[in-house]
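pasting for ref
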Amino acid sequence: MEKIGIIDLGSNNARLVVVEMLGDGHFIVIDQIKESVRLGKDMERDGFLKPQRIAETMRTLKMFRKLCDAYGIEKIIAVATAAVRRAKNQRSFLDEVATTCGIKFRVLTAEEEAIYVYKGVINTMDIPKSVILEIGGGSTKIVRYVRKNLLNYEALPFGAVTLTELFAQDGLKPEEQAAKVEEFFTEQLKRIDWLKELDPETQLIGVGGSFRSLCKLVKMTKRSPLNTVHNCRITLDEFENVYDMIKVLDLDKKKRIKGISSERADILPSALAAMNSFIKYVGFEKIAISGCGLREGIMFNYAVPTTIEKPISDVLTYSLQTLVRFYNCNVKHVEHVVNLSVQLFKQLRVLHKFPRQYLKILKVVAMLHDAGAAIKYYDYEKHTAYIIQNASIYGLTNREMVMASLVAAVHKNDEFQMSDIVRFKAYVSEEDVDAIRKLGIMLRIAESLDRSMSGCVLTLNCDVLGDSVIMKTEVDGDASLEIKDALNASNDFRRIFRKNLEIL
Protein backbone atom coordinates (compact mmCIF):
# COMPACT_ATOMS: atom_id res chain seq x y z
CA MET A 1 0.00 0.00 0.00
CA GLU A 2 1.08 3.55 -0.74
CA LYS A 3 2.63 5.51 2.11
CA ILE A 4 3.09 9.26 2.11
CA GLY A 5 4.90 11.63 4.45
CA ILE A 6 3.39 14.95 5.53
CA ILE A 7 5.75 17.50 7.10
CA ASP A 8 4.36 20.56 8.86
CA LEU A 9 7.04 23.13 9.68
CA GLY A 10 5.59 25.68 12.07
CA SER A 11 6.94 28.50 14.19
CA ASN A 12 7.23 26.26 17.24
CA ASN A 13 7.33 22.62 16.11
CA ALA A 14 8.22 20.50 13.14
CA ARG A 15 6.14 17.38 12.70
CA LEU A 16 6.27 14.43 10.33
CA VAL A 17 3.22 12.21 9.93
CA VAL A 18 3.47 8.92 8.01
CA VAL A 19 0.17 7.96 6.42
CA GLU A 20 -0.82 4.66 4.84
CA MET A 21 -3.41 4.87 2.09
CA LEU A 22 -6.03 2.12 2.44
CA GLY A 23 -7.85 2.78 -0.82
CA ASP A 24 -11.14 4.46 -1.79
CA GLY A 25 -10.26 7.63 0.08
CA HIS A 26 -9.41 5.98 3.39
CA PHE A 27 -6.10 6.42 5.21
CA ILE A 28 -4.57 5.86 8.61
CA VAL A 29 -1.62 7.37 10.48
CA ILE A 30 1.04 4.73 11.15
CA ASP A 31 3.85 6.86 12.53
CA GLN A 32 4.69 10.39 13.55
CA ILE A 33 7.54 12.35 15.03
CA LYS A 34 7.51 15.86 16.49
CA GLU A 35 10.43 18.09 17.42
CA SER A 36 10.48 21.53 18.99
CA VAL A 37 12.57 23.75 16.67
CA ARG A 38 11.29 27.22 17.64
CA LEU A 39 12.04 28.41 14.12
CA GLY A 40 10.10 31.61 14.73
CA LYS A 41 11.94 32.55 17.92
CA ASP A 42 13.61 35.99 18.04
CA MET A 43 12.21 37.04 14.64
CA GLU A 44 10.35 40.06 15.92
CA ARG A 45 13.40 42.37 15.86
CA ASP A 46 14.50 42.07 12.24
CA GLY A 47 12.32 39.44 10.51
CA PHE A 48 15.14 36.95 9.86
CA LEU A 49 15.27 33.27 10.76
CA LYS A 50 18.21 32.90 13.14
CA PRO A 51 21.23 30.66 12.37
CA GLN A 52 20.80 28.61 15.55
CA ARG A 53 17.16 27.93 14.73
CA ILE A 54 17.96 27.09 11.13
CA ALA A 55 20.63 24.63 12.24
CA GLU A 56 18.23 22.91 14.66
CA THR A 57 15.58 22.74 11.96
CA MET A 58 18.05 21.20 9.51
CA ARG A 59 18.99 18.48 12.01
CA THR A 60 15.30 17.72 12.53
CA LEU A 61 14.46 17.61 8.82
CA LYS A 62 17.38 15.26 8.18
CA MET A 63 15.89 12.89 10.77
CA PHE A 64 12.50 13.19 9.09
CA ARG A 65 14.06 12.37 5.74
CA LYS A 66 15.75 9.30 7.20
CA LEU A 67 12.45 8.02 8.60
CA CYS A 68 10.70 8.61 5.26
CA ASP A 69 13.43 6.66 3.50
CA ALA A 70 13.07 3.82 6.01
CA TYR A 71 9.38 3.55 5.09
CA GLY A 72 10.15 3.69 1.39
CA ILE A 73 8.16 6.88 1.00
CA GLU A 74 8.42 8.44 -2.42
CA LYS A 75 5.93 11.28 -1.96
CA ILE A 76 6.54 13.87 0.75
CA ILE A 77 4.09 16.75 1.12
CA ALA A 78 5.97 19.44 3.02
CA VAL A 79 4.42 22.75 4.05
CA ALA A 80 5.74 25.70 6.03
CA THR A 81 3.62 28.24 7.85
CA ALA A 82 3.93 31.55 9.69
CA ALA A 83 7.65 31.74 10.55
CA VAL A 84 8.87 30.89 7.04
CA ARG A 85 6.06 32.91 5.50
CA ARG A 86 7.29 36.07 7.28
CA ALA A 87 11.01 35.41 7.01
CA LYS A 88 13.09 37.84 4.95
CA ASN A 89 15.61 35.04 4.33
CA GLN A 90 12.87 32.61 3.24
CA ARG A 91 14.37 31.84 -0.17
CA SER A 92 17.87 31.02 1.07
CA PHE A 93 16.43 28.87 3.87
CA LEU A 94 14.21 26.83 1.54
CA ASP A 95 17.07 26.37 -0.94
CA GLU A 96 19.29 25.06 1.83
CA VAL A 97 16.56 22.64 2.99
CA ALA A 98 16.09 21.34 -0.56
CA THR A 99 19.83 20.90 -1.11
CA THR A 100 20.70 19.46 2.30
CA CYS A 101 17.60 17.37 3.07
CA GLY A 102 16.08 16.72 -0.33
CA ILE A 103 12.75 18.15 0.81
CA LYS A 104 10.88 20.81 -1.17
CA PHE A 105 8.59 22.93 0.95
CA ARG A 106 5.55 24.87 -0.12
CA VAL A 107 4.96 28.01 1.94
CA LEU A 108 1.28 28.27 2.70
CA THR A 109 -0.47 31.60 2.60
CA ALA A 110 -2.47 32.51 5.68
CA GLU A 111 -5.63 31.81 3.67
CA GLU A 112 -4.42 28.35 2.58
CA GLU A 113 -3.45 27.49 6.13
CA ALA A 114 -6.86 28.52 7.47
CA ILE A 115 -8.66 26.49 4.79
CA TYR A 116 -6.58 23.36 5.48
CA VAL A 117 -7.37 23.69 9.20
CA TYR A 118 -11.05 24.07 8.32
CA LYS A 119 -10.96 20.97 6.08
CA GLY A 120 -9.25 18.95 8.80
CA VAL A 121 -11.99 19.89 11.27
CA ILE A 122 -15.18 19.58 9.21
CA ASN A 123 -14.17 16.15 7.87
CA THR A 124 -13.61 14.79 11.37
CA MET A 125 -16.22 16.52 13.56
CA ASP A 126 -19.99 16.64 13.43
CA ILE A 127 -20.80 20.13 14.71
CA PRO A 128 -23.17 22.07 12.40
CA LYS A 129 -22.28 25.65 13.40
CA SER A 130 -18.87 26.60 14.70
CA VAL A 131 -16.04 29.05 15.01
CA ILE A 132 -12.66 27.34 14.80
CA LEU A 133 -9.86 28.93 16.83
CA GLU A 134 -6.41 27.63 15.91
CA ILE A 135 -3.53 29.07 17.93
CA GLY A 136 -0.24 28.22 16.31
CA GLY A 137 3.26 29.32 17.22
CA GLY A 138 3.41 32.36 14.95
CA SER A 139 -0.18 32.91 13.82
CA THR A 140 -3.79 32.49 14.87
CA LYS A 141 -6.57 31.39 12.55
CA ILE A 142 -10.27 32.06 13.18
CA VAL A 143 -12.73 30.32 10.86
CA ARG A 144 -16.51 30.39 10.87
CA TYR A 145 -18.66 27.80 9.12
CA VAL A 146 -22.31 26.75 9.04
CA ARG A 147 -23.32 23.27 7.86
CA LYS A 148 -19.89 22.74 6.31
CA ASN A 149 -20.01 25.98 4.35
CA LEU A 150 -17.09 28.30 5.07
CA LEU A 151 -18.43 31.79 5.76
CA ASN A 152 -15.58 33.83 7.25
CA TYR A 153 -11.96 33.48 8.20
CA GLU A 154 -9.33 35.68 9.76
CA ALA A 155 -5.59 35.12 10.10
CA LEU A 156 -3.81 37.07 12.86
CA PRO A 157 0.01 37.44 12.57
CA PHE A 158 0.79 36.22 16.08
CA GLY A 159 0.56 32.98 18.01
CA ALA A 160 1.70 31.42 21.27
CA VAL A 161 5.42 31.97 20.57
CA THR A 162 5.14 35.54 19.28
CA LEU A 163 2.69 36.58 22.02
CA THR A 164 5.06 35.21 24.66
CA GLU A 165 8.02 37.12 23.22
CA LEU A 166 5.99 40.29 22.73
CA PHE A 167 5.04 40.51 26.41
CA ALA A 168 8.10 38.94 28.02
CA GLN A 169 9.03 41.99 30.07
CA ASP A 170 11.42 41.96 33.00
CA GLY A 171 9.81 42.34 36.39
CA LEU A 172 6.34 41.28 35.27
CA LYS A 173 4.66 38.57 37.28
CA PRO A 174 3.29 35.63 35.22
CA GLU A 175 -0.31 36.69 35.85
CA GLU A 176 0.49 40.28 34.81
CA GLN A 177 1.98 39.04 31.54
CA ALA A 178 -1.16 36.94 30.93
CA ALA A 179 -3.34 40.02 31.55
CA LYS A 180 -1.39 42.00 28.94
CA VAL A 181 -1.84 39.20 26.40
CA GLU A 182 -5.59 39.18 27.10
CA GLU A 183 -5.84 42.94 26.67
CA PHE A 184 -3.89 42.89 23.41
CA PHE A 185 -5.81 39.92 21.98
CA THR A 186 -9.18 41.46 22.82
CA GLU A 187 -8.24 44.64 20.96
CA GLN A 188 -7.43 42.57 17.86
CA LEU A 189 -10.77 40.76 18.08
CA LYS A 190 -12.66 44.07 18.10
CA ARG A 191 -11.53 44.58 14.50
CA ILE A 192 -13.34 41.42 13.31
CA ASP A 193 -16.89 42.57 12.64
CA TRP A 194 -18.44 39.16 11.95
CA LEU A 195 -17.54 37.91 15.44
CA LYS A 196 -20.30 40.18 16.75
CA GLU A 197 -22.94 38.53 14.53
CA LEU A 198 -22.68 34.87 15.58
CA ASP A 199 -25.72 32.64 15.90
CA PRO A 200 -26.28 31.67 19.58
CA GLU A 201 -26.03 28.00 18.55
CA THR A 202 -22.48 28.49 17.28
CA GLN A 203 -19.94 26.35 19.12
CA LEU A 204 -16.23 26.90 19.67
CA ILE A 205 -13.77 24.33 18.31
CA GLY A 206 -10.18 24.62 19.53
CA VAL A 207 -7.32 23.39 17.34
CA GLY A 208 -3.58 23.11 17.95
CA GLY A 209 -1.04 21.94 20.50
CA SER A 210 -2.10 24.40 23.20
CA PHE A 211 -5.70 23.20 23.06
CA ARG A 212 -4.48 19.58 23.20
CA SER A 213 -2.42 20.45 26.30
CA LEU A 214 -5.49 22.10 27.84
CA CYS A 215 -7.49 18.92 27.22
CA LYS A 216 -4.82 16.74 28.84
CA LEU A 217 -4.73 18.98 31.91
CA VAL A 218 -8.52 18.90 32.27
CA LYS A 219 -8.52 15.11 31.96
CA MET A 220 -5.84 14.91 34.65
CA THR A 221 -7.91 17.00 37.06
CA LYS A 222 -10.92 14.74 36.36
CA ARG A 223 -8.73 11.64 36.58
CA SER A 224 -10.13 10.54 33.27
CA PRO A 225 -8.85 7.16 32.02
CA LEU A 226 -9.37 8.26 28.41
CA ASN A 227 -6.41 9.56 26.45
CA THR A 228 -8.56 10.66 23.52
CA VAL A 229 -8.29 14.36 22.75
CA HIS A 230 -10.40 14.60 19.60
CA ASN A 231 -13.98 15.75 20.27
CA CYS A 232 -13.30 16.20 23.98
CA ARG A 233 -15.70 18.74 25.47
CA ILE A 234 -14.51 21.22 28.12
CA THR A 235 -16.78 23.42 30.20
CA LEU A 236 -16.01 27.04 30.98
CA ASP A 237 -15.41 26.16 34.65
CA GLU A 238 -12.93 23.43 33.68
CA PHE A 239 -11.07 25.85 31.42
CA GLU A 240 -10.95 28.56 34.07
CA ASN A 241 -9.63 26.15 36.70
CA VAL A 242 -6.70 25.21 34.44
CA TYR A 243 -6.05 28.80 33.36
CA ASP A 244 -6.13 30.14 36.93
CA MET A 245 -3.63 27.46 37.95
CA ILE A 246 -1.20 27.93 35.04
CA LYS A 247 -1.11 31.72 34.73
CA VAL A 248 0.36 32.30 38.23
CA LEU A 249 3.17 29.71 38.03
CA ASP A 250 6.76 30.44 37.15
CA LEU A 251 8.42 28.47 34.35
CA ASP A 252 10.12 25.87 36.56
CA LYS A 253 6.83 24.97 38.23
CA LYS A 254 4.99 24.73 34.89
CA LYS A 255 7.67 22.35 33.56
CA ARG A 256 7.05 20.03 36.48
CA ILE A 257 3.34 19.65 35.71
CA LYS A 258 2.54 16.31 34.17
CA GLY A 259 0.74 16.81 30.87
CA ILE A 260 2.71 19.88 29.80
CA SER A 261 5.73 19.22 27.63
CA SER A 262 8.87 21.12 28.57
CA GLU A 263 8.87 22.61 25.06
CA ARG A 264 5.41 24.12 25.54
CA ALA A 265 5.58 25.16 29.19
CA ASP A 266 6.79 28.71 28.49
CA ILE A 267 4.27 29.51 25.73
CA LEU A 268 1.15 27.81 27.13
CA PRO A 269 0.14 30.72 29.43
CA SER A 270 0.02 33.11 26.45
CA ALA A 271 -2.07 30.62 24.48
CA LEU A 272 -4.47 30.17 27.41
CA ALA A 273 -4.69 33.94 27.83
CA ALA A 274 -5.64 34.28 24.16
CA MET A 275 -8.25 31.53 24.59
CA ASN A 276 -9.69 33.26 27.64
CA SER A 277 -9.89 36.56 25.80
CA PHE A 278 -11.67 34.90 22.87
CA ILE A 279 -14.12 32.96 25.05
CA LYS A 280 -15.10 36.05 27.03
CA TYR A 281 -15.32 38.34 24.02
CA VAL A 282 -17.60 36.03 22.05
CA GLY A 283 -19.42 34.52 25.04
CA PHE A 284 -18.80 30.79 24.60
CA GLU A 285 -19.68 28.47 27.48
CA LYS A 286 -17.74 25.38 26.41
CA ILE A 287 -14.99 24.23 24.07
CA ALA A 288 -14.90 21.26 21.72
CA ILE A 289 -11.30 20.16 21.16
CA SER A 290 -10.26 18.92 17.75
CA GLY A 291 -7.24 16.65 17.51
CA CYS A 292 -7.30 17.26 13.76
CA GLY A 293 -6.32 20.36 11.83
CA LEU A 294 -3.79 21.40 9.21
CA ARG A 295 -2.14 18.02 8.64
CA GLU A 296 -5.46 16.18 8.46
CA GLY A 297 -6.73 18.79 6.01
CA ILE A 298 -3.73 18.00 3.81
CA MET A 299 -4.37 14.25 4.21
CA PHE A 300 -7.98 14.61 3.09
CA ASN A 301 -6.94 16.84 0.23
CA TYR A 302 -4.64 14.07 -1.02
CA ALA A 303 -6.77 11.02 -0.24
CA VAL A 304 -10.18 12.45 -1.12
CA PRO A 305 -9.62 15.42 -3.45
CA THR A 306 -13.38 15.97 -3.78
CA THR A 307 -13.54 17.07 -0.12
CA ILE A 308 -12.28 20.46 -1.29
CA GLU A 309 -15.66 21.13 -2.90
CA LYS A 310 -17.80 18.60 -1.04
CA PRO A 311 -16.83 17.67 2.53
CA ILE A 312 -17.51 14.20 3.90
CA SER A 313 -21.19 14.18 4.85
CA ASP A 314 -21.09 11.40 7.48
CA VAL A 315 -17.78 11.61 9.33
CA LEU A 316 -18.71 8.82 11.75
CA THR A 317 -19.46 6.25 9.05
CA TYR A 318 -16.36 7.32 7.13
CA SER A 319 -14.05 6.75 10.10
CA LEU A 320 -15.73 3.43 10.98
CA GLN A 321 -15.26 2.22 7.41
CA THR A 322 -11.59 3.17 7.66
CA LEU A 323 -11.19 1.00 10.76
CA VAL A 324 -13.10 -1.89 9.16
CA ARG A 325 -10.56 -1.79 6.33
CA PHE A 326 -7.58 -1.45 8.64
CA TYR A 327 -8.58 -4.39 10.83
CA ASN A 328 -9.48 -6.48 7.77
CA CYS A 329 -13.05 -7.15 8.91
CA ASN A 330 -15.49 -9.05 6.68
CA VAL A 331 -17.32 -6.10 5.12
CA LYS A 332 -20.47 -8.01 4.10
CA HIS A 333 -20.73 -9.60 7.56
CA VAL A 334 -20.25 -6.22 9.22
CA GLU A 335 -22.93 -4.60 7.09
CA HIS A 336 -25.37 -7.44 7.80
CA VAL A 337 -24.79 -7.35 11.56
CA VAL A 338 -25.38 -3.58 11.48
CA ASN A 339 -28.63 -4.13 9.55
CA LEU A 340 -29.86 -6.81 11.98
CA SER A 341 -28.86 -4.67 14.98
CA VAL A 342 -30.90 -1.76 13.64
CA GLN A 343 -33.88 -4.05 13.08
CA LEU A 344 -33.65 -5.39 16.63
CA PHE A 345 -33.35 -1.90 18.10
CA LYS A 346 -36.51 -0.78 16.29
CA GLN A 347 -38.45 -4.00 16.89
CA LEU A 348 -37.70 -3.97 20.63
CA ARG A 349 -38.24 -0.25 21.16
CA VAL A 350 -41.45 -0.99 23.08
CA LEU A 351 -39.29 -2.74 25.70
CA HIS A 352 -36.17 -0.57 25.91
CA LYS A 353 -37.68 2.88 25.08
CA PHE A 354 -34.23 4.28 24.24
CA PRO A 355 -33.90 7.57 22.35
CA ARG A 356 -32.38 7.54 18.86
CA GLN A 357 -28.86 8.49 20.02
CA TYR A 358 -28.53 5.00 21.55
CA LEU A 359 -28.97 3.54 18.09
CA LYS A 360 -25.87 5.49 17.06
CA ILE A 361 -23.88 3.73 19.80
CA LEU A 362 -25.23 0.32 18.77
CA LYS A 363 -24.29 0.93 15.11
CA VAL A 364 -20.73 1.88 16.10
CA VAL A 365 -20.24 -1.36 18.03
CA ALA A 366 -21.92 -3.43 15.32
CA MET A 367 -19.47 -2.01 12.76
CA LEU A 368 -16.45 -2.84 14.88
CA HIS A 369 -17.74 -5.85 16.85
CA ASP A 370 -15.08 -8.27 15.59
CA ALA A 371 -12.22 -5.81 15.00
CA GLY A 372 -10.56 -7.10 18.17
CA ALA A 373 -10.08 -10.49 16.51
CA ALA A 374 -7.22 -8.92 14.55
CA ILE A 375 -5.36 -8.81 17.87
CA LYS A 376 -6.51 -12.20 19.17
CA TYR A 377 -9.70 -14.19 18.62
CA TYR A 378 -10.03 -15.31 22.24
CA ASP A 379 -11.71 -12.57 24.26
CA TYR A 380 -11.88 -10.49 21.08
CA GLU A 381 -14.69 -8.42 22.54
CA LYS A 382 -12.25 -7.00 25.11
CA HIS A 383 -9.81 -6.07 22.38
CA THR A 384 -12.63 -4.44 20.45
CA ALA A 385 -13.51 -2.38 23.53
CA TYR A 386 -9.90 -1.18 23.71
CA ILE A 387 -9.90 -0.30 20.01
CA ILE A 388 -13.06 1.79 20.38
CA GLN A 389 -11.56 3.68 23.33
CA ASN A 390 -8.31 4.46 21.52
CA ALA A 391 -8.97 4.55 17.78
CA SER A 392 -9.75 7.66 15.75
CA ILE A 393 -13.53 7.48 15.58
CA TYR A 394 -14.74 10.80 14.28
CA GLY A 395 -18.18 12.03 15.23
CA LEU A 396 -18.27 10.45 18.70
CA THR A 397 -18.19 12.37 21.96
CA ASN A 398 -16.08 10.95 24.77
CA ARG A 399 -19.23 9.72 26.52
CA GLU A 400 -20.48 7.96 23.38
CA MET A 401 -17.06 6.39 22.94
CA VAL A 402 -17.07 5.01 26.49
CA MET A 403 -20.64 3.72 26.12
CA ALA A 404 -19.77 1.98 22.85
CA SER A 405 -16.65 0.37 24.32
CA LEU A 406 -18.59 -1.00 27.29
CA VAL A 407 -21.29 -2.42 24.99
CA ALA A 408 -18.53 -4.15 23.02
CA ALA A 409 -16.95 -5.54 26.19
CA VAL A 410 -20.16 -7.12 27.55
CA HIS A 411 -21.97 -8.21 24.43
CA LYS A 412 -20.60 -11.76 24.30
CA ASN A 413 -21.45 -12.92 27.82
CA ASP A 414 -22.78 -9.96 29.82
CA GLU A 415 -19.90 -10.12 32.26
CA PHE A 416 -20.33 -6.56 33.41
CA GLN A 417 -17.71 -5.14 35.74
CA MET A 418 -18.98 -2.40 38.00
CA SER A 419 -15.36 -1.35 38.32
CA ASP A 420 -15.68 -0.02 34.75
CA ILE A 421 -18.47 2.31 35.86
CA VAL A 422 -16.28 3.58 38.70
CA ARG A 423 -13.34 3.97 36.31
CA PHE A 424 -15.39 5.89 33.76
CA LYS A 425 -17.61 7.74 36.24
CA ALA A 426 -16.87 11.04 34.50
CA TYR A 427 -18.72 9.73 31.44
CA VAL A 428 -21.25 7.09 32.53
CA SER A 429 -23.30 6.36 35.63
CA GLU A 430 -24.82 3.31 37.29
CA GLU A 431 -28.06 4.15 35.50
CA ASP A 432 -26.29 3.56 32.20
CA VAL A 433 -25.63 -0.10 33.07
CA ASP A 434 -29.13 -1.14 31.98
CA ALA A 435 -28.74 0.54 28.59
CA ILE A 436 -25.28 -0.96 28.05
CA ARG A 437 -26.58 -4.46 28.82
CA LYS A 438 -29.63 -4.15 26.57
CA LEU A 439 -27.59 -2.80 23.67
CA GLY A 440 -25.06 -5.57 24.28
CA ILE A 441 -27.60 -8.40 24.12
CA MET A 442 -29.13 -6.93 20.96
CA LEU A 443 -25.71 -6.93 19.32
CA ARG A 444 -25.02 -10.49 20.51
CA ILE A 445 -28.24 -11.76 18.90
CA ALA A 446 -27.57 -9.82 15.68
CA GLU A 447 -24.06 -11.24 15.48
CA SER A 448 -25.35 -14.78 16.10
CA LEU A 449 -27.98 -14.40 13.38
CA ASP A 450 -25.14 -14.09 10.88
CA ARG A 451 -22.99 -16.78 12.48
CA SER A 452 -22.06 -18.34 9.13
CA MET A 453 -21.50 -14.88 7.61
CA SER A 454 -23.80 -15.89 4.76
CA GLY A 455 -26.52 -13.27 5.24
CA CYS A 456 -29.16 -16.00 5.30
CA VAL A 457 -31.31 -14.26 7.94
CA LEU A 458 -32.86 -11.44 5.98
CA THR A 459 -35.35 -9.72 8.25
CA LEU A 460 -36.75 -9.89 11.77
CA ASN A 461 -40.22 -9.33 13.15
CA CYS A 462 -40.61 -9.27 16.94
CA ASP A 463 -43.89 -9.64 18.80
CA VAL A 464 -44.11 -9.03 22.54
CA LEU A 465 -46.73 -11.43 23.88
CA GLY A 466 -47.15 -11.52 27.65
CA ASP A 467 -43.85 -12.60 29.19
CA SER A 468 -42.28 -13.62 25.87
CA VAL A 469 -40.68 -12.07 22.81
CA ILE A 470 -41.44 -14.07 19.65
CA MET A 471 -38.75 -13.33 17.07
CA LYS A 472 -39.80 -14.41 13.58
CA THR A 473 -37.07 -14.63 10.97
CA GLU A 474 -37.27 -14.44 7.19
CA VAL A 475 -34.46 -16.57 5.82
CA ASP A 476 -32.84 -17.48 2.54
CA GLY A 477 -31.48 -20.99 2.94
CA ASP A 478 -30.64 -22.98 6.08
CA ALA A 479 -30.49 -20.74 9.18
CA SER A 480 -30.40 -23.50 11.81
CA LEU A 481 -26.85 -22.56 12.93
CA GLU A 482 -27.83 -18.91 13.28
CA ILE A 483 -31.01 -19.56 15.27
CA LYS A 484 -29.32 -22.08 17.56
CA ASP A 485 -26.46 -19.67 18.28
CA ALA A 486 -28.85 -16.78 18.92
CA LEU A 487 -30.88 -18.89 21.37
CA ASN A 488 -27.74 -19.34 23.46
CA ALA A 489 -28.40 -15.76 24.56
CA SER A 490 -31.92 -16.55 25.83
CA ASN A 491 -30.97 -16.78 29.52
CA ASP A 492 -29.20 -13.40 29.43
CA PHE A 493 -32.08 -11.96 27.39
CA ARG A 494 -34.57 -13.10 30.06
CA ARG A 495 -32.48 -11.57 32.84
CA ILE A 496 -31.93 -8.26 31.05
CA PHE A 497 -35.32 -7.73 29.37
CA ARG A 498 -37.37 -9.82 31.83
CA LYS A 499 -38.89 -11.67 28.86
CA ASN A 500 -38.48 -15.16 27.45
CA LEU A 501 -36.98 -15.33 23.97
CA GLU A 502 -38.29 -17.53 21.20
CA ILE A 503 -36.84 -17.49 17.69
CA LEU A 504 -38.73 -18.99 14.79
